[in-house]
Every structure is written in structure tokens, then in C-alpha cells.
Automatic annotation (TrEMBL):
It comes from Methylobacterium trifolii. Pfam families: Cons_hypoth698. Coiled coil: none annotated. The chain crosses the membrane at residues 21-44, 50-67, 88-106, 112-130, 142-164, 170-192, 204-224, 236-254, 275-296, 302-322, 334-356. This is Sulfate exporter family transporter. The keyword Cell membrane applies.
Length: 359
């Protein structure tokens, strides 16, 4: 005769067995609803202005934060929100590798390639130093540094799970970085007359400083075709830096200080899966396959679009996990840190243009 399961045992069986999917479904549906609204708002921007000044993933996280401020999701939503914020994001990062090709990057020349790599490295180090000087937590400092130095929201979203960043740190970094990203699109063209930049030089500057590829297009199209082509190429090189940077931080993650009263985890047996997360391996693998020409443009485009969709869903989930009161307490310091980091990045980029003699 089989013993009757206790309520606790029954609950555990539901979570680990057939009840696992229903448990995450309400939270996923909530994130999808926010995503749908965010995408619709971006489409309205595109029809009104020709391009989005605020991308759907930024709208999604801001909507999530706003909804979380007015209403706290109940227990039935939490598992799905957590699943969307972590697992779906990891899948999205993996799929982004299908959009990266090494051929055009190699053809751009060793001097510019080395300069871009050096700029990213210097910017990350300088940004991290500024953030720590302003007493920001180590993990948030890394998120801000990577967001400013590589590719904004995508870099923050990719680095966050590797270093074990809290959702509030991720949301704060993305929110403030996103605001400055919009200001960059609007204000960066002023450097053409102020600094006397040519279309080629401005393209390099935009590619090195603007956060997202669509924002690079928005910032360069008004200046000229040459700026758009150069800016896009330089931006792709910066995006490619995301893989090595994430791998590097996965190696350093165990050495980061444990903040917020948590105990430092005990070191365990060294393994490849601990050093390099599965989604980074997948990202690099897809990038290599794409570079060999085994993923055609016709296949790469929908994969990249689906990755972008999953990223928006994940950003909605991150927003739903943020208490706006916590965000407000760190707002001033984060704003100063992001602004200071961006100023340093622009200065490094202008110096590189002069040193390389880019005409």
C-alpha cells in the first residue's frame, strides 16, 4: 500500500514534474503581454520618425518597472518571470552569435581592429574605476562598464548572469544607460562641426560610442552614407568583443566581493561549465559557423530577430523584478557613473581617431 504524499512532497512533485510548465506559464504570459505593447510602441516610433529613438527592449523594462511599482505580481507569476529573466535571456544571447561574421572585421585592417579592442579594454577599466569611486557595488560597476564600452543593453544582459548580478542592478544599469543612449543619438552629430570631423571620422566615433546597432544607424544616417557604413562596421567589431569579455568575467566571477550581506561561495572543482557558461559557448559556436558561411543571410535574419524578441521578453521580466524605491536610492550615483564613463569613452575614441590618422 502506497503512503499518501504530504502537501510539501506533492508541491515538490508538481514543480519538478508535469506541473513545472503550468507554474511558469502565467509569468511568461505576463512578460509576453508587456513585450507586445513595447513592440507596438516601437513600430509607432518607426512610422512616425523613420527609426526608433527608444527600442522595444528599453520600453519593456520601463513598463515592467512601472507595473511593478503599481502592482506586485503574486506567487503564481514569479516562477515564469524568473524563467523569462534567466533561461530565455541565455537562449537569446546564444542565438545572437548567428548574426556575427568575422570576414568583414578582418578586412578592416589590423590597426583599426587593434584600436577598437584597446578602446573597449581601456573604457571598461576606466568605467569600472569611476563606478567604484562613486561607491557603486562591484557587479553594478561591471554592468555599467560593459554597457558603455561594448553594446549597451545587450552587453549588460549577457554579462549579468555570468557575474550573478541582481535584477535590480541589471534594471538600473539598463535604464540609465538607455537614457544616455537616446541622448547620444540626438547629440553626437554635433561633434561633426564642433570637432571638425569628416564623415569617415564621425563613423568611427559613432561606432565606438553609440550603444546599439539601430542607434548607430540613427546617429549616422543624417551625416552621410560613409558614416553609416563605417559606423556599422566598427560597431560590429565592438559587438564581437562581447564574447571574450563575458568569458573573461566568467573567470573572474568567483573573485568578486559578496555584497549585500551574502556569504562568499566556497570554491569547488574547476570545470569548463563553471568557467564558460553554456550560452557563451553556443554564441561563439554560432559565430564561427556564420563566419564559415554555413549560416546564410536568409537564415541568419530570422534567427537574429527571434533572439531580439526573446531579449525584449527578458527585459520585461527584469523590470517586473525591480522595486523602483531601490532604483531611486542609487539613481544619482548611477547617473554620474554612466555619464562619467561615457565622457571617458568619447575622449578615448577621439584620441584613437587622431592617433591612427583617420581621414
Amino acid at each position: 500500500m502506497t503512503a499518501q504524499a504530504t502537501p510539501k512532497e506533492a508541491s515538490m512533485r508538481r514543480e519538478s514534474g508535469a506541473g513545472a510548465m503550468p507554474s511558469v506559464l502565467p509569468g511568461i504570459l505576463l512578460c509576453l503581454a508587456i513585450t507586445a505593447v513595447a513592440i507596438c510602441l516601437q513600430m509607432v516610433e518607426e512610422r512616425s520618425f523613420g527609426h526608433p529613438y527608444i527600442e522595444a527592449l528599453v520600453i519593456a523594462i520601463l513598463m515592467g518597472i512601472a507595473l511593478r511599482s503599481a502592482w506586485q505580481p503574486g506567487e503564481r507569476f514569479r516562477a515564469g518571470i524568473a524563467f523569462s529573466a534567466k533561461q530565455l535571456l541565455e537562449v537569446a544571447v546564444t542565438l545572437l552569435g548567428a548574426s556575427i561574421s568575422l570576414g568583414a572585421i578582418v578586412a578592416s585592417g589590423p590597426a583599426l581592429l587593434a584600436g577598437i579592442v584597446g578602446t573597449v579594454g581601456l573604457a571598461i577599466a576606466a568605467s569600472y574605476g569611476i563606478c567604484r569611486a562613486l561607491k557603486l557595488p562591484a557587479r553594478m560597476a561591471i554592468l555599467v562598464a560593459c554597457g558603455n564600452s561594448i553594446c549597451g543593453n545587450s552587453a549588460i544582459a549577457a554579462v549579468a548572469p555570468v557575474i550573478g548580478a541582481d535584477s535590480k542592478d541589471v534594471a538600473a544599469s539598463i535604464a540609465f544607460t538607455a537614457v544616455l543612449g537616446v541622448l547620444m543619438v540626438l547629440g553626437l552629430p554635433l561633434f561633426v562641426p564642433l570637432a571638425g570631423l569628416s564623415e569617415h571620422q564621425y563613423g568611427v566615433l559613432a561606432g565606438l560610442t553609440v550603444y546599439a546597432v539601430p542607434q548607430v544607424l540613427a546617429a549616422t544616417v543624417p551625416v552621410g552614407l560613409m558614416s553609416t557604413q563605417v559606423g556599422t562596421l566598427v560597431k560590429l567589431v565592438r559587438v564581437l568583443m562581447l564574447g571574450p569579455v563575458v568569458v573573461a568575467f566568467s573567470l573572474l566571477a568567483s573573485r568578486l566581493p559578496q555584497e549585500g550581506g551574502t556569504a562568499k561561495p566556497k570554491p569547488g572543482r574547476l570545470s569548463l561549465t563553471r568557467l564558460v557558461p553554456w550560452f557563451i559557448v553556443g554564441f561563439l559556436l554560432l559565430a564561427s559557423i556564420r563566419s564559415l558561411g554555413l549560416i546564410p543571410d536568409a537564415a541568419s535574419r530570422p534567427v537574429t530577430q527571434f533572439a531580439g524578441f526573446l531579449t525584449v521578453v527578458s527585459m520585461a521580466a527584469l523590470g517586473l523584478g525591480v522595486d523602483v524605491r531601490v532604483l531611486a536610492r542609487v539613481g544619482g550615483r548611477v547617473t554620474l557613473a554612466v555619464t562619467g564613463s561615457l565622457v571617458v569613452l568619447i575622449a578615448i575614441s577621439l584620441t584613437l581617431i587622431r592617433v591612427l590618422g583617420i581621414a
